[in-house]
Amino acid sequence: SKDGAYVREHFFGKYPETAALVADWTDEQIWALNRGGHDPKKIYAAFKKAQETKGKATVILAHTIKGYGMGDAAEGKNIAHQVKKMNMDGVRHIRDRFNVPVSDADIEKLPYITFPEGSEEHTYLHA
């Protein structure tokens, strides 16, 4: 996907019934929808149910966007898996999107980030 207008046209716009669902929405609101393959709660629920299922195979189909979260560098592009380097605009996009605590003054140094022991981030990374 490229943006909310693209999703409106190519996803919701296929049928009058789905187009009507978002007729009063802005393109920004449509773009902010979290698809199942990128929704942590849906992913957790799917894996939990799969682990609890006994006696038969389970398949999880995750609808995702290539390069999700990479912004203009690769999001929604077929080259997402080949991106090896990112320009500073892309780095800033990732920083802002994921609230990485790096100032504008330090961003070009690409500093190594550490989180305080006991913080939510530190606990998650060391679980």
Automatic annotation (TrEMBL):
Task: Name all Transketolase N-terminal domain ranges.
Answer: 34-98
Q: Does the keyword RNA-binding apply?
A: no
Q: Which UniProt keywords apply?
A: Pyruvate
Looking up InterPro entries in the UniProt record yields:
PDH/Transketolase, THDP-binding, Transketolase_N
Name of the protein in its database record: Pyruvate dehydrogenase E1 component
